[in-house]
Amino acid sequence: MAKPGKTMSSSMELTFQPLAKTFEDLTLDSGYGDMAGSCRSSVLSLSPSHLDTPPPGALWTLQQAVGAQGCPQCVTERAGRHVLRSRSWATLPPVEWVPWTEKDVGTVMRKSLPTWEVSPGLVRQVSSYLGRALQRVALEAQRLSLRCAKCTKQEVQAAARLVLSWALAEVFVSAGARGLSQYNMSAEEPWSCSKSTLCTLDLSVGRTFRWMLEARVAPVIHEHAAIYMTAGMQALLELLCARLGPVPSHRRGILPQPDVEDEQEQALERLLNSDAELWGIFQPYQHLICGRNAYGVLVLPACLTVYGRRSLARVSRSLRMSELQALESSLLATVVDSITELSALVMNISYYLQRLTALSSGTADKPPFHQGALSWEPGALHTLFYYTQRGVQPHISDSHGIQLTRERPEAWLPPLSEWLRVCVALAEHRHSLTVDSGDVQQAARLLLPGVDVEPRPLRVECCLYASKLLEASVVKRALCWNLAFRMLSCGRTDLVDAAAALLGPDGINTLDQQGLSPLMYSCTCGDEAMVQVLLDSGASIDLQVPGSGQHAPSAHPETRYWTALTFAVAFGHTSVAQLLLDRGADPNGCIGDEGTAETPLHLAAAAGRFPLVSLLLEKGADPLCGTSCTVGGGASLRGTTSAFSLAAAHGHRVVLWTLLSTINSDIVSLEDMLEEGLVSQNTRRPRSGRSKRIRQRALQGALYHSAEHGFLDIAMQLRQQENVPWTLHPWLQCLSTSFSQQCWEVMHSLLGDFPTRQDMYSKELVHEGLPLLFKILKTCQSESTVHQLAAILSGCYGPYPVPPVHEDVAKPHTTLDPAFLNNKEMCDITFLVEGELFYGHKDLVSSASPGLEKLICEASAWSSVPVEVPDIKYKTFQLVMQYIYSGAAEGFHIGKQEALEVLHAAHVFGITGLKRHCELLCSKNISPSDAANVYRQAKVDQATELKTFCEGYFLKNMVTLLDVSSFRRLLLASEDKDSLGKALLHTLTARMQALNQPTTKETMV
């Protein structure tokens, strides 16, 4: 650990002093008086930018920092005490379920680790660790979402930057951006496949959305937030696998499975214990342990160390090695002696990181910062000093003194680099130009055990604007505005006139840096009295948050174009919304049919606030507002824009039916008006048709989102009550959900709505639907449902006949005249079959049958004894010998009852031509009553052609065969690798893939 003492502080002061003076013009006086020295109140910090993921092991431990006040053994002892203290730390609550299965995790791991034989134990362990990372990101996103009452991709991005290191956060955010780009630009038909498929992800976006809802991350979850969360989690999983690395070639395949599982789990533990970026996020504690590995050693990412940088030569020419080492030591410092020292550390770290960014030759070795600067307010430095100041030294304190507070053990304090990372991420999420005291307090809650701070609400931000780059008049105006906004948000109605005078010509309609007016802040807080006063004083009721960042640089992207009514609805203040609507507020939030922003009704429907939904509809809110701009009928670039889809996606059934009843009554009343001639038919009929089309598209979107997120009841009622047509993907999702929940009646209803033939040969049905249908067939106890499944599977097989078995073109062998068959006078060998003698010719039989040749060789020592042929009937043996002597199947007759026995004999004796001929005979004579027996015999005799034919016959005639007890027993036999269900699945999959041709489908329609 780095504990900058007097000597270290002095050396750093000497090193940094010239550089600090060149930087002096960018800061103001500190205001600390004589204590400050070279300290500055506004210290330049830089914000995270692009950073490539460092290779495995690319983390560097600063040995100087570790040994600043002792040897490495001292660090080990301190780490040991740290582990003992960790037993009293608060832990994260257990997660009941995660939005992925072990199969999903295993799929990603096997793709990322092609040389590994990934064991089930390793998959379970990795899934558990990944769940903790998900929980941490979701907890931070939950706190950040309180600011605008919804969770968007901005909250997930900021949460990832708070929890993860600079490198891991960049991996997380980049993966989310890629997934979202593919989702928006997909060429797939709307609602034709899952969101994960559109994003090319293996983990489920729909299940992640449902998990975020049940975890109460926010009242409203934006679908882009779920995409970012899913893609980021999968990227973390892939990065973990990449750092595990390939299996050494000399270790592959030499260990038994139990040893392989143990070795893989040990390799994972070794990686996590030594990787400071991964170890902390996978721990069960509420606070985040970062900047240290499992042994308590402080570790700095390679992108911030001179030894890990590719452009070392170029950097060394500009910066002295001592300066770089001092920078690294500063980044790993955990405690300071004075606020002067802390200010100097923060200032010089920021300055050097800016220089390193400028000197970097490319993105691979570029530090994770932007060129833009963030200032540190004096209060932020004071708060940070409170958490990082050194405790009382033992040799200074009185041994008999009274200790009133418990000192923080320095062994688990985070390094200064982590404080800077978290504070900058918090300030960036607020779109602020400064790091304030609140950011530091929020960082302390995250980084220190036992610290809790209230989440930051949406309120007037107090910024001192201390930068010298601003003119005095600009600073004065900003401070006056800040004072006026605080006067208007304090609840004092008698200060309105004075505040309006401070705001200038726009008065109380002035917008601050966040794009909000005083009326919007009052609506956010639910201050009904202040809202009334502001409206009476002339506040514009439909004023919108600017859509351009130039006019509102600190505005949250998701609040752009919001009105005061939108804020009141978003935060659930019904009485304030009632007041605004009574005073003439636009119930649609000034969003037209082609608008892309969310209306108040959208937010109320998504949050499930029934009173607000009813109020807005009563005041004339349009449920279809914004629906017509939806791209492809699915999701726009800003996400779902249908109030119906939002209500269905969040599982609010009552709200959805309220919306449906409103739009249905509107359309009916319009038709009545047309019939009565009260409205011009030429002008109104197109709108009626438009409303119906938009309504149908909105309901299809609602059905898709409810199915994707697992709300089975909503999807079924949309289908049954509103007659919304199925598409394949929602149908499959609902069928899977009903099967997992064992809703047999719902499943029966779904099977009755099997999709049309044009969807029958799609990839999704073949690869996902067929396995599900066979699982249901295996476990379902309802006769009617089983017969439904049989009809569906037979329909999937198609109208064409089962491919026949063809004769084998066998290599001809020597033949004899039939007169020599079983001729005692002209034979040279005798066979004993069922106690009867059969005469033959040794050379002919041996050349035609390897099995009989083996029997003849075994009996050659006893030439006078007949060759005994066991386990075969005399008549069957006679037919086999007849085929051998004739050499072909022409004129060779085998009865239906004898075909299976001859097939078995031909298999035992190795006569391939006769075996194939018997397969052909069995396939021609097969019937429902003996089909199961033929299939069993084909499996025993390895008659591949006959087995495949039987499987096709089963699929073609499954409805009829279900009434045959022998077939049902065969179908429902115990699950194993050779079960009939798996064989039928394989055969049907191959059949449907072969039929998946445009010309074939046209012929079949």
Automatic annotation (TrEMBL):
UniProt-listed SUPFAM superfamilies: Ankyrin repeat, Histone-fold, POZ domain
Which keywords fit this entry according to its UniProt record?
ANK repeat, Repeat
Query: SMART domains of this UniProt entry?
Result: ANK, BTB
Q: Which residues form the BTB domain?
A: 827-887
**Repeat listed as a keyword:** yes
| Lineage top rank: taxon | Eukaryota
Q: Provide any one GO MF term from the record.
A: protein heterodimerization activity
ANK repeat coordinates? 514-546, 560-588, 596-622
Xref: Pfam families: Ank, Ank_2, BTB, Histone_ABTB
State if Acyltransferase is listed as a keyword. no
Quote the InterPro entries the UniProt record gives: ABTB2/3_histone, Ankyrin-BTB/POZ_domain, Ankyrin_rpt, Ankyrin_rpt-contain_sf, BTB/POZ_dom, Histone-fold, SKP1/BTB/POZ_sf
Q: What protein name applies here?
A: Ankyrin repeat and BTB/POZ domain-containing protein 2-like
Species per Swiss-Prot/TrEMBL record:
Paramormyrops kingsleyae
